Amino acid sequence: MSRHSEAVARLSAAQKPGRGAPPYSRWINRRLGRQFAAAAYLRGMTPNQVTLTSAAFTFTGVACIALISPRWWLGLLVGLLLVIGYALDAADGQLARLQGGGSIAGEWLDHVVDATKNCLLHTAVLISFYRFTDLPRWTLLIPLGYQAVSCVFFFTFILVEKLRKGAGRGIHRGAAEGATGRGLAQTFLAAPTDYGVLCVCFLIFGWVSGFAVLYSLMFAANLAVLSVALLRWWKEMNTLSPAAGA
Description:
- By secondary structure, this protein is mainly alpha-helical.
- The chain is 76% helix and 0% strand.
- The radius of gyration is 19 Å and the shape is globular.
């Protein structure tokens, strides 16, 4: 067995549970990330270096969206850059676990990069729609709305996890639901919110009208899922109380 294969096997054993995670992230991105993490491990890279490499790929793709007029090849380039960036985003955490655990600073850096890309990706789409297309002006509201939904979803999810831990309920419900089969259903229901699916959508970015329709459908689906999730989280937060001694 090669050193790379051995590292991949060790990463597989240290993989965190995937129950309830969206399908692309669960079955494709983590596997891609595992390959990148193994390569980074053999090259002596740190998780923070992998995070910054992920940011470089992602933000290069974002810049291409905003600065270059849509062409067939641009969609392929942007899609590839975003997919690689997302795979590397999965790799930093896996590398940290392989090396014995990450740091608070590393987790902070990872979240900052994620929050920034959530804002800038949709901003870049807005700029592209405005600069390079003949789409009706009302369509500019779609990336603005998508940006708002994405940012609210990201912040609220992080906040819910923090409040759960503060109430002594550190294990995500998804783990328990997975044992009853609900985890798989949650995986597919979460598909529209999967950042990896959005990355793949950019492969047709050069086909402006087709991308605009697909992007709009993704926005509508994300808005619907967020609405349901907010109601569910609100009900859950009403059942929580601060942990003893907190």
